[in-house]
Amino acid sequence: MIDHTWIGRTLPESRLDLERGRLRFFARAIGETNPIYTDVEAARAAGYADLPAPPTFLFAAELDSGAVVKMLEEMKVPLSKLLHGEQGFSYFRPACAGDTITVTSRITDIYDKKNGALEFVVKVSEARNQDGDLVAELRTSLVCRNA
Amino acid sequence: MTIDADIRIGQDLPPLTLPPVDRTTLFLFGGASGDHNPIHVDIDFARRAGMPDVFAHGMLGMAWMTRMLTGWVPQSRLRKIDVRFLGITHLGNAITVTGKVTDIVVEDGERRARIALSNTNQFGQSKIVGEATVALA
Lengths: 147, 137
Fold this sequence. Notes:
The complex is a heterodimer of chains A (147) and B (137).
Chain A: E1 14-17, H1 20-29, H2 40-45, H3 61-64, H4 67-75, E2 82-91, E3 100-113, E4 118-128, E5 134-145
Antiparallel strand pairs in A: 1-3, 2-5, 3-4, 4-5
Chain B: H1 2-6, E1 16-17, H2 23-33, H3 43-48, H4 58-72, E2 78-85, E3 96-107, E4 110-120, E5 126-135
Antiparallel strand pairs in B: 1-3, 2-5, 3-4, 4-5
């Protein structure tokens, strides 16, 4: 069972530098063809400062930093038993290439279903840019299948 | 945008149909998204974990959902999206993302549409469902 004293704990900050090359790679990986995601001029013509991060991209911050993998190791949740249960985002302002995003997460709940066969870890994250402005909130529910 | 004048509850959004999931897609998405869990790219690891084969990242399916939305309205109009992963998207699954306007509301002084979202494979199995809120002009 996952140690419930994790509830309320904050993870170390994850900093993600938004780079044009990485954003283009992400756009390609998801099959995105709208030029605003790959062509700086098209992005600027659409009103963005630079290539915008697609809506789900900021999930990468805590993967790149290793914060999530470290948390799972400390919780003794093996990657082989991990599933993604739910995911949410709220958006407050754009994040574009050239921005540095800092993600700070708090574990808000841990619970189980089916007599512990499934355990859930709920995490809420704030993503802020280099000016300290709130860019997005992320809501994540991870599932450990023990059965 | 003209879509705003025409928008009505019950309206279907233009669907997005994806090619069948293949290993190359999973390999690329793993690298681009930062999700290096080997269960999505390494069949030996997947089998040891009790899975028949590698399978798609949940966040790949969610990225496709948001592609459908940003194909309909500019990303700057997207206020919120919440999804639930119902089932594993397997190799060979060809996902169609659909959306339907379920409500039109005023929030924070802004007219917004609620959209019910679904990722469904070619066998009619729903893999991800969700709800998004987008601002209308």
